[in-house]
């Protein structure tokens, strides 16, 4: 059987984190009762006129700079004409001829080393509304809340060759955009979604095969499964002597099957023409420089700095920086506590454990860095031990409670009164002659048992180092 390779290009749609829509002042907030975040402009009423939101242009330029694009100095909006119930104007305002960003790239790490994925263009456009299919009433309803929410579409070159490369590229893009604050990129809420253009060809062939497009995939698992299934479908067609048809397909992730929606349109099918209601966007060098100066420190630079300045392992640095939210918590905690290794450990061990057990996203972490820093200082000063600290951390994680207040109110200050501890330990030694005998017989586990009994007796509040010291003194007496 012939060996085939995939050729994949992506169109990634990202909803921008502006407070208002691209051409009107309606809120972009997710949710809300149907058709309440609307006005004459975003519902396409006759005579209403669009006014461009400057922040949309700035976010688009920031993403373009982060992905090594050229910024178009004279950019225009066009009308993409098509009829669909969720498209109230019967056209979408987009950019075809002069998009805001062009000719960029993103570098990803693959099994065979660093690979450059070309970005053909990034253009600004408005989102459409949402159709809700009501099976009970056997009808379709339209919610225009999302209509006019600002989007950028990041169009890659056909440089991707596997599902793994696609996921790596998308993860890199998502982190860049999240670090910029340009979007939360929540795939489950549709603020980041991808269309996959895929074709296959024999390994070594230069010409592209016929491509299909799979629309609006909004989870990495679905994207990966859709790619593998479409690859097999196209190979089977070719092996059977049939032809791959250029078409748009919809992936059903529950059935793990795709079906044809429509034959693939070309640009002329949309009768694009310049939007007469919107002036061109003229970008000056000063404007580009101001965006450039506001670019944040991205993940790769953070990882390097964490290893060099904070002396934490590369693995820890990679995990912490995989979420901008966690990286922000970590950095502020370090600043307040002066303990980078401790801050890293609390995020890497306890935080990650709770996130895994509760199946939570890192973005849902709501405790303040100041409370984590206070917890670290309580341990450092010897006021609580690590057993108590773990209990306190869970309270901080759930309620963001001040650990100093919680420790005091619940009587958790570490017992370091040597006289009081001596009495408790002497009683434990007297009550466990077998363990004492085992210890003198060279069994180290016996000491661990006695320490455990002392910790139990003091409800975990005693200083373990002090218990060890007193125990050895009594046993060696």
UniProtKB/TrEMBL annotation:
<dbReference type="GO" id="GO:0005524">
    <property type="term" value="F:ATP binding"/>
</dbReference>
<dbReference type="GO" id="GO:0050567">
    <property type="term" value="F:glutaminyl-tRNA synthase (glutamine-hydrolyzing) activity"/>
</dbReference>
<protein>
    <recommendedName>
        <fullName>Aspartyl/glutamyl-tRNA(Asn/Gln) amidotransferase subunit B</fullName>
        <ecNumber>6.3.5.-</ecNumber>
    </recommendedName>
</protein>
<dbReference type="GO" id="GO:0070681">
    <property type="term" value="P:glutaminyl-tRNAGln biosynthesis via transamidation"/>
</dbReference>
<dbReference type="GO" id="GO:0016740">
    <property type="term" value="F:transferase activity"/>
</dbReference>
<dbReference type="InterPro" id="IPR042114">
    <property type="entry name" value="GatB_C_1"/>
</dbReference>
<dbReference type="InterPro" id="IPR017958">
    <property type="entry name" value="Gln-tRNA_amidoTrfase_suB_CS"/>
</dbReference>
<keyword id="KW-0067">ATP-binding</keyword>
<keyword id="KW-0436">Ligase</keyword>
<dbReference type="GO" id="GO:0006412">
    <property type="term" value="P:translation"/>
</dbReference>
<keyword id="KW-0648">Protein biosynthesis</keyword>
<dbReference type="InterPro" id="IPR003789">
    <property type="entry name" value="Asn/Gln_tRNA_amidoTrase-B-like"/>
</dbReference>
<dbReference type="Pfam" id="PF02637">
    <property type="entry name" value="GatB_Yqey"/>
</dbReference>
<comment type="similarity">
    <text>Belongs to the GatB/GatE family. GatB subfamily.</text>
</comment>
<comment type="function">
    <text>Allows the formation of correctly charged Asn-tRNA(Asn) or Gln-tRNA(Gln) through the transamidation of misacylated Asp-tRNA(Asn) or Glu-tRNA(Gln) in organisms which lack either or both of asparaginyl-tRNA or glutaminyl-tRNA synthetases. The reaction takes place in the presence of glutamine and ATP through an activated phospho-Asp-tRNA(Asn) or phospho-Glu-tRNA(Gln).</text>
</comment>
<dbReference type="InterPro" id="IPR017959">
    <property type="entry name" value="Asn/Gln-tRNA_amidoTrfase_suB/E"/>
</dbReference>
<dbReference type="InterPro" id="IPR004413">
    <property type="entry name" value="GatB"/>
</dbReference>
<comment type="subunit">
    <text>Heterotrimer of A, B and C subunits.</text>
</comment>
<feature type="domain" description="Asn/Gln amidotransferase">
    <location>
        <begin position="328"/>
        <end position="475"/>
    </location>
</feature>
<dbReference type="InterPro" id="IPR018027">
    <property type="entry name" value="Asn/Gln_amidotransferase"/>
</dbReference>
<dbReference type="InterPro" id="IPR006075">
    <property type="entry name" value="Asn/Gln-tRNA_Trfase_suB/E_cat"/>
</dbReference>
<dbReference type="GO" id="GO:0050566">
    <property type="term" value="F:asparaginyl-tRNA synthase (glutamine-hydrolyzing) activity"/>
</dbReference>
<dbReference type="InterPro" id="IPR014746">
    <property type="entry name" value="Gln_synth/guanido_kin_cat_dom"/>
</dbReference>
<dbReference type="Pfam" id="PF02934">
    <property type="entry name" value="GatB_N"/>
</dbReference>
<keyword id="KW-0808">Transferase</keyword>
<keyword id="KW-0547">Nucleotide-binding</keyword>
<dbReference type="InterPro" id="IPR023168">
    <property type="entry name" value="GatB_Yqey_C_2"/>
</dbReference>
